[in-house]
């Protein structure tokens, strides 16, 4: 009577039909190595590919804030945007590109404004035990992947956007997808004067002004190649990007004579070889990332001479090697195993000498049916870390005196997930999980001079979560409803705190409790030439520090800064023949900017709502779209005193072969 | 189902129109009594500096005064203030401006900007004042009645605290972080008639406080620097002869952080210890040695929780001592009030990182 979930999934895939062909032919190659058919639907959510296609010309930060439960804290267009997933902070959101970690070894986080949706074909979110193959994703994982099918012929896609504030975007995809080989090149350039008008509420009197020194230019190219052999697949992808971004001053400081910018360049390369046999596959991946950032801040003296306050250079080289195995065991049981070796090496103006870290990680997972409708998934990981240690005797020694520590085990990290498909309600399923993971201190935490603390431990997180999923499908109507509850406790949470010296130092002082609820809805209805789609997310995240340290200062129980208690988004689309009309809604609740209970404006940012609409039409191979962002011209702040644009317009033109 | 969703969207649209301006408060009217101003620096780049007033007679505290009166933030890192009969001047370091407000109503009057990294004000007369600067090498001259810059005194070093002695202003050279080839271990004498540098004396690194005593000697407290070898010391200097009258060296590892003097010019109040654990010491200007027992011990206060003292002020009325406790630098601090013998009287909550305190 009861059917196991893997079969359900297989059936549902068949039911959904279109996209997936047999495994070998769909180019799953570059996807996350822990592709697990049994639990694919659990603790994971793919962003609708139609939405990704529609938003190719924006950054991942905009895609996530509008279409996912991930909260994005943005300093404004063309400025840093960081993520908060399930009530945690940016450094607890692991970002994987084709299975390789993008989080910077120095900061531990990812600037989502530097990931153009254009360079991705698939975006998905994972949480709970789904994050277990890597350290770091205590909140969750954002996966971005490149996928291109074989046998599709010539690929040519040109997109051009022009919008308010002299914003230009040009996007080109050119390639060829033959029977056994794919060659594809993507290239883009995006720039803006970003000189929008806003009301500066920090001046006396408040005044309308133009944003200054906020212009930016980003460009990049991504060549890809895939070759298919009889039982194997070889692929190479290279993501190269350059940006120059001026940073505007905060509202009270707009009259400052200050120059501030960052130049960021990187080259991220992955070579992968995948070999298949009947009951499994093995994949070997090799990644090399080189990234560098120059941050510059300058003011001017009485006689106009520049005073360089900051001119720091940060270079990192990261090698990651992965061997990933998947093997059918017995009946429905499957085994996944991974061995990963990472080498991170950073040279920074703020470190004494070059700093290196090695990581060796062993991971294994099994899943299968335990009883009728009940599936079980167990994973276990062991990480071993070796890193540079400065001899204790003298902190200010020459770099050559830095000695490397022996490899040391960080411990064993297990997860367990139960998946239950309710037999008497079609489409209803539950899954409950326990996961234990940790996050390494960043190299800045360890080696920043002054303050870096080489004695830091990793943050240690334990999470339980429960998801309820309901999926309804018939010929003209689809409904996808999900609810997720989570409760995590992170011990040894790293916080920079004042010390008995004049600098601050990161310490494992906090004990953070994050608990919350995520709701998701997606409904699709077709009628004759009409197609209606509605989707939305609501997130409640309550995150507090319950440590003794917080108690000492009376900030225990206070919501952590910049994590809204409530946030939500919604999307509605109507299609008729070749026309489409879209509406997007964002809601961000109040956010603390300090740990005080106080009504002072600067201590708590008010909530805001944004509305965006767009109207598009397909004309043969052309597509034209007109978009209005922030339709109601709302004034709002996402980060304290950072001006945000009001209403803006954009024209989008696409030609696709 | 769809109708419900539509309703939610419509509700959303209505709400967002309603919520367009969350900040439509009325400015408050104030009439400041006699008492103590506390300037709270706030978090760097958060522009959450604030102004607090404490009325000792009524024992009342009012926080966020600048914002409540003017409906705009004070700015980013309010560093210092000065008051005369024409107004109150607040130096906002990282916003690089000076706000002039009415000293009674606290209403905004004027702004002076275009400074590099302004630190402190020395009011000379109603048409002239100096502003020290942590990044420019010298003192800005401005007219406090028009709030216009009128010149610049080039001294070759960045400038910090000032004291006036007759026709001269003595300024400390505290930082060479942004001007690496200049001195951070000198004091300089400026003639206020000619606005010229006339002399200079060497002390030890980072002179952070300078006061004038009843004998017309100046006292300079040096934290001794940041990187070893540190030389924390207190100097008593005769400004007329440019002679060091007395020098007191602190023990190795001590970090004297700030100093003030009472109204009579008799007793120095010094915060010394390690950076996050500074105790208050009282010392007579006639003493031959540094005090060994603190008047207020930051680690053994009445409520048994350690304090992170940062600045001290002494009431000109009754000699009460006020100490700021910055706590973890992230949340609102406290001001603790002691009598002149170091007995705890009361405390009150102020803004984030309370710094400079001043009686009006």
Q: Which assembly state applies to the chains in this document?
A: heterodimer
Largest β-sheet summary of chain B = 4 strands, antiparallel
Biggest sheet strand order of chain B reads 3-2-1-27
The number of strands of chain B is 27
Structural class of chain B: mainly beta
Q: Using the coordinates shown, work out and report the CATH topology of the domain at 208-241 and 250-360 in chain B.
A: Methylamine Dehydrogenase, Chain H
- Biggest β-sheet strands, sense, barrel of chain A: 22 strands, antiparallel, barrel
| SSE ordering of chain B | HEEEHEEEEEEEEEEEEEEEEEEEEEEEE
> For the CA atoms, what is the radius of gyration of chain A?
25 Å
How is this fold's topology laid out?
The complex is a heterodimer of chains A (657) and B (360).
Chain A: H1 5-16, E1 44-46, H2 49-54, H3 60-67, E2 71-74, E3 81-84, E4 93-97, E5 100-101, E6 122-126, E7 140-145, E8 153-163, E9 167-177, E10 181-192, E11 197-200, E12 207-210, E13 216-228, E14 232-246, E15 258-277, E16 280-300, E17 306-328, E18 334-348, E19 355-371, E20 374-389, E21 403-404, E22 408-421, E23 428-439, H4 443-447, E24 459-473, E25 477-498, E26 504-527, E27 530-545, H5 548-552, E28 566-576, E29 579-588, E30 591-592, E31 604-605, E32 608-619, E33 622-629, E34 648-656
Parallel strand pairs in A: 4-7
Antiparallel strand pairs in A: 1-6, 2-3, 4-5, 6-7, 8-9, 8-34, 9-10, 10-13, 11-12, 13-14, 14-15, 15-16, 16-17, 17-18, 18-19, 19-20, 20-21, 20-22, 22-23, 23-24, 24-25, 25-26, 26-27, 27-28, 28-29, 29-32, 30-31, 32-33, 33-34
Chain B: H1 2-18, E1 36-40, E2 50-55, E3 60-62, H2 65-70, E4 78-84, E5 87-92, E6 97-101, E7 108-112, E8 118-125, E9 128-133, E10 138-143, E11 148-154, E12 162-165, E13 168-173, E14 186-191, E15 196-202, E16 207-212, E17 218-222, E18 233-238, E19 243-249, E20 258-261, E21 267-274, E22 277-284, E23 309-314, E24 321-325, E25 332-338, E26 344-352, E27 354-359
Antiparallel strand pairs in B: 1-2, 1-27, 2-3, 4-5, 5-6, 6-7, 8-9, 9-10, 10-11, 12-13, 13-14, 14-15, 16-17, 17-18, 18-19, 20-21, 21-22, 23-24, 24-25, 25-26
């Amino acid at each position: 009577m009861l059917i196991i979930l893997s079969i359900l999934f297989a059936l549902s895939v068949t039911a959904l039909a279109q996209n997936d062909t047999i495994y070998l032919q769909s180019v799953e190659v570059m996807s996350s190595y822990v592709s697990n058919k049994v639990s694919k639907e659990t603790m994971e959510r793919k962003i609708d590919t139609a939405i990704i296609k529609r938003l190719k010309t924006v950054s991942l930060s905009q895609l996530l804030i509008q279409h996912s439960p991930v909260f994005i804290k943005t300093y404004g267009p063309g400025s840093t945007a960081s993520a908060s997933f399930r009530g945690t902070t940016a450094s607890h959101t692991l970002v994987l590109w084709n299975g390789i970690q993008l989080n910077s070894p120095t900061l531990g986080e990812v600037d989502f404004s530097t990931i153009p949706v254009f360079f991705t074909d698939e975006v998905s979110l994972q949480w709970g035990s789904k994050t277990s193959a890597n350290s770091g994703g205590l909140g969750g994982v954002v996966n971005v992947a490149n996928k291109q099918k074989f046998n599709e012929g010539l690929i040519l896609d040109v997109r051009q956007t022009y919008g308010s504030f002299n914003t230009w975007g040009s996007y080109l995809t050119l390639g060829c997808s033959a029977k056994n080989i794919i060659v594809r090149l993507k290239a883009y350039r995006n720039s803006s004067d970003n000189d929008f008008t806003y009301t500066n509420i920090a001046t006396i009197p408040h005044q309308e002004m133009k944003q200054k020194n906020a212009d930016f230019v980003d460009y990049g190219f991504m060549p890809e190649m895939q070759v298919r052999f009889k039982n194997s697949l070889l692929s190479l992808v290279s993501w190269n990007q350059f940006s120059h971004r001026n940073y505007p001053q905060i509202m009270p400081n707009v009259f400052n004579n200050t120059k501030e910018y960052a130049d960021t360049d990187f080259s991220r390369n992955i070579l992968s070889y995948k070999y298949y046999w009947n009951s499994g596959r093995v994949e070997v991946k090799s990644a090399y990332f080189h990234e560098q950032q120059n941050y510059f801040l300058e003011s001017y003296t009485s006689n106009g001479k520049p005073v360089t306050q900051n001119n720091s250079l940060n270079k990192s080289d990261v090698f990651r090697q992965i061997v990933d195995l998947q093997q059918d065991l017995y009946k429905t049981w499957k085994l996944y195993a991974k061995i990963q070796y990472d080498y991170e090496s950073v040279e920074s103006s703020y470190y004494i000498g070059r700093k290196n870290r090695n990581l060796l990680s062993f991971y294994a997972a099994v899943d299968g049916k335990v009883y009728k409708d009940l599936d079980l998934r167990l994973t276990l990981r062991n990480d071993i870390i070796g890193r540079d240690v400065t001899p204790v005797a003298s902190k200010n020694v020459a770099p050559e005196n830095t000695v490397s520590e022996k490899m040391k085990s960080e411990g064993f990290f297990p997860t367990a997930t139960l998946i239950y498909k309710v037999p008497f309600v079609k489409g209803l399923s539950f899954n409950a999980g326990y996961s234990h993971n940790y996050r390494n201190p960043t190299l800045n935490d360890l080696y920043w001079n002054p303050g870096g603390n080489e004695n830091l431990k990793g943050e240690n997180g334990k999470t339980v979560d429960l998801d309820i999923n309901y999926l309804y499908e018939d010929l003209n109507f689809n409904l996808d409803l999900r609810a997720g509850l989570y409760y995590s406790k992170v011990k040894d949470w790293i916080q920079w705190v004042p010390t008995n010296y004049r600098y601050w130092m990161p310490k494992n002082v906090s004990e953070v409790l994050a608990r919350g609820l995520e709701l998701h809805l997606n409904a699709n209805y077709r009628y004759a030439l009409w197609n209606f789609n509605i989707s939305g997310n609501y997130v409640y995240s309550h995150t507090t520090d319950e440590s003794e340290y917080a108690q000492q200062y009376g900030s225990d129980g206070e919501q952590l800064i910049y994590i809204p208690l409530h946030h939500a988004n919604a999307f509605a689309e109507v299609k008729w023949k070749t026309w489409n009309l879209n509406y997007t809604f964002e809601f961000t609740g109040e956010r603390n900017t300090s740990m005080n209970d106080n009504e002072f404006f600067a201590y708590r940012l008010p909530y805001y709502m944004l509305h965006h609409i767009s109207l598009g039409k397909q004309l043969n191979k052309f597509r034209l779209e007109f978009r209005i962002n922030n339709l109601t011209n709302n004034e709002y702040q996402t980060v304290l005193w950072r001006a945000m644009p009001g209403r803006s317009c954009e024209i989008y033109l696409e030609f696709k072969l | 189902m769809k109708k419900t969703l539509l309703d939610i969207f419509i509700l959303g649209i209505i709400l967002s129109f309603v919520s367009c301006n969350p900040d439509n408060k009325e400015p408050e009217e104030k009439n400041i009594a006699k008492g103590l101003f506390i300037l709270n620096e706030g978090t760097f780049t958060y522009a959450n500096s604030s102004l607090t007033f404490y009325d000792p007679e009524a024992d009342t505290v009012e926080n966020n005064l600048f914002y409540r009166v003017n409906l705009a933030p004070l700015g980013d890192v309010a560093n210092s203030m000065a008051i005369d009969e024409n107004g109150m001047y607040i130096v906002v370091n990282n916003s690089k401006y000076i706000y002039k407000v009415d000293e009674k109503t606290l209403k905004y009057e004027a702004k002076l900007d275009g400074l590099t990294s302004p630190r402190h004000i020395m009011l000379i007369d109603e048409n002239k004042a100096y502003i020290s600067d942590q990044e420019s090498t010298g003192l800005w001259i401005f007219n406090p009645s028009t709030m216009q810059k009128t010149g610049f005194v080039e001294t070759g070093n960045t400038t910090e605290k000032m004291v006036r002695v007759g026709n001269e202003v003595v300024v400390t050279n505290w930082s060479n972080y942004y001007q690496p080839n200049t001195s951070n271990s000198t004091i300089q004498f400026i003639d206020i008639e000619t606005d010229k540098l006339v002399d200079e004396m060497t002390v030890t690194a980072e002179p952070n406080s300078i006061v004038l005593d009843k004998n017309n000697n100046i006292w300079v407290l040096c934290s001794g620097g940041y990187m070893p070898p540190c030389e924390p010391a207190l100097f008593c200097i005769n400004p007329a002869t440019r002679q060091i009258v007395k020098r007191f060296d602190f023990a190795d590892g001590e970090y004297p952080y700030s100093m003030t003097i009472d109204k009579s010019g008799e007793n120095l109040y010094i915060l010394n210890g390690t950076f996050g654990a500074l105790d208050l010491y009282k010392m007579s200007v006639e003493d031959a040695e540094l005090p060994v027992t603190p008047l207020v011990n930051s680690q053994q206060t009445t409520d048994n929780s350690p304090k992170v003292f940062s600045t001290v002020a002494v009431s000109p009325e009754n000699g009460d001592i006020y100490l700021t406790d910055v706590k973890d630098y992230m949340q609102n601090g406290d001001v603790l009030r002691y009598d002149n013998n170091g007995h705890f009287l009361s405390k009150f909550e102020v803004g984030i990182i309370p710094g400079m305190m001043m009686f009006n």
